Amino acid sequence: MLQDGTRYRDAHIFDGFRFARANAQLQQLQQLQPCAEVPDQKASRLTHVSPDWPIWGLGNMSCPGRFYASLVMKLVLIRILDDWECKMPHPEAPRTKTWRSSTVPRDDTIVMFRKKLP
């Protein structure tokens, strides 16, 4: 679904800022026309539940721990970026693989971590 060309431009190309860019464009539009409502346009959130973002499930079956999981992921990422230098020994090596209809990280990807000096 996240690679559906009818939903996303350049859907098969990884763009880590896909949703951030869409949110920024939506905010700019709302600043230009504060009273204008844009149909079918909402700021995307990691914890958002919708048919376009089915990661957490839908309706009554949506994951109740998604807010906690989102917070923990962000805190772990902050600690890694703040305390560690990260490097890939082979930057050109493939980092993803396709499994069924999903693109997932390769389990043989090597990332080197070194504690930052104070």
Word description of this protein:
It is a single chain. The chain starts with 17 loop residues before the first helix and ends with a strand. It is globular and about 45 Å long. Helices cover 28% and strands 14% of the residues. The protein has helices at residues 18-32, 66-83; strands at 84-87, 96-99, 102-105, 112-115. The protein has a two-stranded antiparallel ribbon. The mean pLDDT is 81. It is built from two helices and four strands. The longest helix is centred in the middle third of the chain and has 18 residues, at 66-83. A hairpin with a 2-residue loop joins strand 2 and strand 3 (102-105). The chain has a domain at 45-115. The protein is of the alpha+beta class and 118 residues long.
Task: Describe the secondary structure blueprint for this structure.
Blueprint: H1 18-32, H2 66-83, E1 84-87, E2 96-99, E3 102-105, E4 112-115
